Amino acid sequence: MKGFIKKHAVSIIASFAGSVGGFLYWKFVGCLSGTCVIKSVWYMSTLYGLALGWLAGSLLEELITGLKKQKKYE
What is the total count of domains within the chain? Predict the structure, then answer.
């Protein structure tokens, strides 16, 4: 378990930040009419934020590991 957390620390932190951002987006922007699928309920915007955070974090992880590998071979 520690190996997984250490390997994916950037993605975990980014997904937490994304979920907080999604919740804050619902809280302050939101959709009052209830017709907006993502913004009408707090858990949907939080889940979308979590997914976007995980995606951004995994892309950042790949970029970091690619740069480390490239630097290693130089």
Answer: 1
